[in-house]
């Protein structure tokens, strides 16, 4: 009976014909220093949108190369804004930054994506995705033809990144992946990607610069980049149950507005669906298909759960206080 | 109607308290306390303390203790844990003595039980787990920053280790930033989180705008009745400057913290606020307080918030004198003295004894391996009596191994009454490998603060000195790129030339067999025309005969 129910449900529910069961997001700001405030604001804005649309903190890996909020130069203490009118504060009380300061390196980024982390790495720092995960990877920083600069000291090569994506494909670590990158000449990072089921969007083509949008006079620096600004403009209108498609987002990127031409990766490699059928919430949100079962009760289910042997607080019998000082 | 609702709310609030107090021989208590003191310079020191105690023996029936933390303690057999995250220094010369201070940055101290051979792996796991639940980058504290002190930092609670240094690990990251992402998970460890009780007063945009802020988490065991109890103490210490925030010395909770106390945590057995009165003429409002023996007043917030919203305020008149503080017995100051970033220098620590009696101190200084110390230059002198030397009573010196462990210096010596002692040691900065520098290498790197312990009226006091910033001699980071360019150019020119010379041959060919380009044909034609004008008909004949020959050739 149940399988008939499921079959009917999958046939008649619009938009739920994807194979993914969970969503992850990896959001990275690769630049350090106060004058790169806008890159931190870019990353935090995407983090804020993705949380608002339903992805929980446990499924988001946020890497920020520098601390802007508690920076002594910040006139608005512990607050970061991505707009001059300061409507939204994107560093709210429930922010969780997983990799901070000098922990954000090319090596750590690749280790997170390929899950080759040292033993004992806490869960909040691991990307525990599987073949049914849809992952959003967002990078921002300074870049050039074929590279992205990390922390002003090292570079991530476009070829290395496409190799890491291929490793992810071979290890079955994603179902579909949306790769967004907002840097100068971002297209050079997107073009070498040859792995299936990855859509790459760069904010500019090879040879073009991505520009910043506007600045805040009190903070004293640019607060948001153009391409991210228009992406957020679009995302602000999306609700968790929105049926908007990815093609509508790409249509928002007009060269006149963002003053650079976005570069897309080879969309033919995305063989499962075309972009006018992919929902925005497939990557930015975490909307799940709920199936109701009529069998059994909650009490019965809980009773069936076996309780394992839990560790005990052992109370040793040789506990004593020790002298604090050797004199 | 409102009274009825309030009554219902009160009953529902008390119900879980009745259920929690005793469950299968486990006694759990949770206390919230706020201490407010006035400091000179019109500053206000607020210290929130959240204490959870549990006598849970089997590790299963606890309700107040935070499960993530308890699981880490159980799995890795931790006996005592202390984590502090601090921004700023406690200026004891200005603000006087306070019991709980912490060094700037992140400080992590763990005492382990169990076998000493497994302590290193357990230290790595505990560091990573705690960094996961507090968003602090403790996972990157490697063996380069970890020490096992011999005399200092003994466990303050019950332990099986007898204070043996094999079981302790201490790591400091002086440059660690403390921001909202550290506060949020720290608050989540509390039973009521930030939804009610004193923790609901903490707003990140207000508490990070302070002269000093420090979060601390300590876990230890104490004796309670016949049994043993685990005590988890979370403390947040803040120094506000109302004069800078809104131009007046008078302050209120709403003004400093941005919030007022609406209700208290139902699990807390007591929620109290102590306010130290700053002097004559100052008034503390609301008038619901009871006096506290000679020190100030206290509010029973649990009672008050059942009917009112509590907003503690102190009005200080303009002619009020400066606040009185207890001057510290010992003041410590560490600094670096040298000429330039690549020259050798001295690490100097000054100890000032403000009392009329000699005080014996234990001084621990961790120095990173990249400052090579000259141990024979270590000296302690009494500056107040023409630099006469002070002999140390105990000394422990752990030498550094490059890229493995730092130096640990531990010295016990006595500072004479009303004198200043100067400890100094000479060092040479090392040039690191180019990939060992932190991302902003020109900022410099911090040396961990010194830890000074002494006894004051049978109570052990721990002080922390400054964490000086050392400029490292940095290489030219563009050198690898420059070298590659230069070498590639040289190889291209040299190799290219040799390749051309060795693989190409010079051969002779007739001139008219060579097919010439259009430009060259034009140039030769022009030249021919010029020569024709110069030499006259002879050349014309020659050309004509050549043309005849050519035309004859083609005819055939």
Structure write-up:
The complex is a heterodimer of chains A (327) and B (556). By secondary structure, chain A is α/β, with parallel strands linked by helices. Chain A contains 10 helices and 12 strands. In chain A, helix 2 runs parallel beside helix 6. The longest helix of chain A has 16 residues, at 37-52. Residues 12-16 of chain A have low confidence and may be disordered. Chain B starts with a helix and ends with a helix. Helix content of chain B is 24%, strand content 33%. In chain B, a hairpin with a 2-residue loop joins strand 25 (451-456) and strand 26. The model of chain B is unreliable at 15-23, 538-546 and 549-556 (pLDDT under 50). The radius of gyration of chain B is 38 Å and the shape is elongated. Chain B has helices at residues 2-20, 67-75, 92-95, 119-134, 180-188, 204-207, 242-246, 253-256, 301-304, 479-503, 518-535, 537-555; strands at 22-23, 26-39, 43-54, 78-87, 105-112, 146-147, 168-173, 212-224, 227-240, 251-252, 270-276, 283-285, 290-292, 296-300, 313-315, 330-338, 345-353, 359-367, 371-382, 388-389, 394-398, 407-415, 420-429, 445-446, 451-456, 459-464, 469-470. In chain B, the strands form 5 sheets. In chain B, strands 1, 2, 3, 4, 5, 6, 7, 8, 9, 11, 13 and 14 form a 12-stranded mixed β-sheet that branches. At the A-B interface, strand 3 of A face helix 4, helix 5, helix 6, strand 9 and strand 25 of B.
